[in-house]
Amino acid sequence: MSNITPSQTVGPYFKYGLTPGNDYAWNDAFGNDLVTPNVSGERIRIVGQVFDGEGKVIPDSMLEIWQADAQGRFADPQDTRAMPNAAFKGFGRCGTDAKGGFEFRTIKPGPVPGPGGKPQAPHILLAVFARGMTQQAITRIYFEDEAANAADPILTLVPADRRTTLIAKREQGVTYRFDVHLQGDRETVFFDL
Amino acid sequence: MTLIYPRESNAAHAPRLSPAYKSTVLRSPSKPLVIIPHTLSELTGPVYGHETVRENDNDLTIQHKGEPLGERIIVHGHVRDEDGRGVPNTLLEVWQANACGRYIHVVDQHPAPLDPNFTGAGRAQTDSNGYYRFVTIKPGAYPWGNHPNAWRPAHIHFSVFGHSFISRIVTQMYFPGDPLFTYDPIFNSVTDEKARMRMVSSFDIENTKPDWALCYRFDIVLRGRNATPLDND
C-alpha cells in the first residue's frame, strides 16, 4: 500500500471555488476558452453533455482537459523536445449546465509521441469530476476525421466495439461533439492509469 | 527529474462504486477501466497559468469588508510526492462551508445563515519546498440527503495539481476527533483505515498563533516516485 492521500468526491458545491464564471465574485483560475491571441493551429469547439447510468443529464459535473499544441508539444518543461509554445497553455476547465452541457474552445492538437516513439493520433485528455464520483474518471477525445486513429497505440488497446465512445463527431464547421456516459450500454471508455 | 507513477498507489482510493454513498450508484463506470501505458500526455500537466493567484487569495478571512464569524484557523502543510520530496510551485484550490455549515453555492438549501463576510474559496501556491498555508474559518458540519439524519463531518475541499495530469487530486481535509466520522459514507468510502486517516489534519499547537488563531497541519502526498536509475547509468 502506498502512502498517497486518497481522493474524495468534488461534491455538489465546487462551483463558486473552481468554476465561478460570472456567477460568483471570485476570479477564475481556469476557463473553457484555451485560445490565446496568435496561437497557431485550427481553432475548434468541443461540445457535449454528461449522462448518468439512467441516461439522465448531470448538471453538476466538472470537466478538465489537457492537450498538446498544434505541433504536438505540451506547455510543461517535462516535455523536453522543444521550447513550449508559451502562447498556448493546454489546460481548460468547465462545469456542466442545467442540461449537462459543456463547451471548450481550443485548437486541434498535433500528434504526440507514444510508447516506443510511435506517434499517437491527435487527442485531448478529459477528466470528469462530480458528486457521486469518488475520484475523477479519465478518458480521451479523438477526432473522427483523423486517419491516424486506425494505428493509434492507445485506441488499439480498447475493445473494438467500444472505440467509438472515444471519437468526437464533427458536426458543423469546426464543432466536434463528445458526449460522456458515465455508466451503462453507451458507457464511455475510461482508463486505468 | 523523471517520475514514475505506480498503479498500486491507486489502491488508497475509494472504490468508484461505494453504494453507501448513494449517488455513486449511477455515476460509477460499470465496465472495466482500460489499462494503458503512461505516455507524454499523462506524464505532463499544467504548470503555467497560476498567475491568477493573487497575494491574499490564501486568506479567506479578508475577502470582504468585515471579518467572518467563526473560529479563525490556520491550515498549513506540505505537498509531497510518494518519495517524500516537496512538490514546489503547485496550485492548491480550497472551498468550504461557513462556520454554520452553509455553502454560498445557490443550490445549498441548508437553513443555516450565510455569512456576508465569507465566500469560502481560496487559492495558494506551494513554495520551493512544497509548503502552503491558508487562513480561514473552521467550517461547520451540515446535513445532506443521502440517508435519514445524514451529516457531513466538518471538512475543507482541496484541489491539487502536482507534476502531471495523473498526480492531480481532489480530496477533502477533515478535523481530528470528529464524532461524525463513524457515520459518514463519503469519509468511509476510503476503506483502508490508514489511507482514510491521511485525510484527517492534525492539531498543531506549535504553530497556533496566541490570541489569534488555532492551527491545523494537513500534509498531502501525491502520486509519483523517482524513477529507479538504471545500473549502467
UniProtKB/TrEMBL annotation, chain A:
Record's keyword terms, sorted: Dioxygenase, Oxidoreductase
One of the record's GO molecular function terms: ferric iron binding
Q: Name one Pfam family in it.
A: Dioxygenase_C
* Domain Intradiol ring-cleavage dioxygenases, residue spans: 46-74
Superkingdom: Bacteria
Check the record and name the SUPFAM superfamilies matching this protein.
Aromatic compound dioxygenase
Query: What are its E.C. numbers?
Result: 1.13.11.3
The Swiss-Prot or TrEMBL record describes its family as follows: Belongs to the intradiol ring-cleavage dioxygenase family.
Under what name is this protein listed?
Protocatechuate 3,4-dioxygenase subunit alpha
Q: Which gene encodes it?
A: pcaG
Automatic annotation (TrEMBL), chain B:
**E.C. number:** 1.13.11.3
Q: Where is the Intradiol ring-cleavage dioxygenases domain?
A: 75-103
- BP-aspect Gene Ontology terms: 3,4-dihydroxybenzoate catabolic process
EC class name: oxidoreductase
**InterPro entries on file:** Intradiol_dOase_C, Intradiol_dOase_core, Intradiol_RC_Dioxygenase, PCDO_beta_N, Protocat_dOase_b
Top-rank taxon, per record: Bacteria
GO terms, molecular function: ferric iron binding; protocatechuate 3,4-dioxygenase activity
UniProtKB keywords: Dioxygenase, Oxidoreductase
What family does this chain come from, according to its entry? Belongs to the intradiol ring-cleavage dioxygenase family.
Q: Which PANTHER family match?
A: DIOXYGENASE, PUTATIVE (AFU_ORTHOLOGUE AFUA_2G02910)-RELATED (PTHR33711), INTRADIOL RING-CLEAVAGE DIOXYGENASES DOMAIN-CONTAINING PROTEIN (PTHR33711:SF10)
What protein name is recorded for this chain? Protocatechuate 3,4-dioxygenase beta subunit
Q: Which organism is it from?
A: Afipia massiliensis
